[in-house]
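Render SPFH domain-containing protein in 3D.
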Amino acid sequence: MRLIFVLGLLIPLLFTSACAERVEVPPAHVGKVLTKNGYKPEVVLPSKFRLDMCLFYCDKLVTLTIADFGHLEKFKVFMPKDQLNMSFDVRMTGAISDGVIDHVFDRIPPVNDNISVKHVYNTYAQPVIRDVVRRVVAKYSINEIASSRESLSQELFQEVSSALKGTPIEIKRLGLADIQFPKVITQAKERAAERRELIEQEKAQFEIQKIQMERDLEREKMNRAIAREKAIGQKEVNDLLAKSVTDKYLAYRTLEVLDKMATSNNKVFLPVEALGTMGLQHAVFSEQVKQVAGKKQ
């Protein structure tokens, strides 16, 4: 009777143990089986399987997240060179190094059978990163940071990567972001930008005035060239008249004028002495000028 009772207790237990727990290591994770004597040495890659059958103490699966992670650290650093506080963010991408997985399983306790990458980061990386970033940034002035942000991000990446060697965290990318300069620096930069804008406007206005002055200068040159050509033409006319109008020519032209006056209805009788007056000579000379001018055209 007693034997039957014992068998009645053992049979359900054996039946239950025959159906060992089904577990899974999801993608971007690795796992280890935790026994009563500690972790098994094998690292389990993403897969589904059943744990060993058990009676009194059952094994369990502990997973570790190994996916790349993004993280942001906020800083407010006192800048010794400027005696001002400056706020900024550091954005990074990291992962757990492959060669230290056993170390993580041994040193980080799981929560709900999982070791999160955040737990690993907070334990090994965060204190180091915050110390390195503060130390590097404090070496520079705010203006140097503003003008050399890219090179400073590269320096931070190299310094942080070097400081994290030998830890479970590997940094793949790191850089400065959302830099918030002190208000006094921002206002100074705005005033400087306004001054540069005014200078550019003055330069533009000067260039416009320069073009206008050059255009006026060219116009004056053209006017002087035209006046010079007119003067040269007038001089040539005068030289030609001086050479062509002789006493004999004036006497000949006088007779022509008198002949026309004789046939005209508007007759004016002059004394013989008036034939040599300046008025008559002027009339003759004017007619000659018109003829010379007509030939020049």
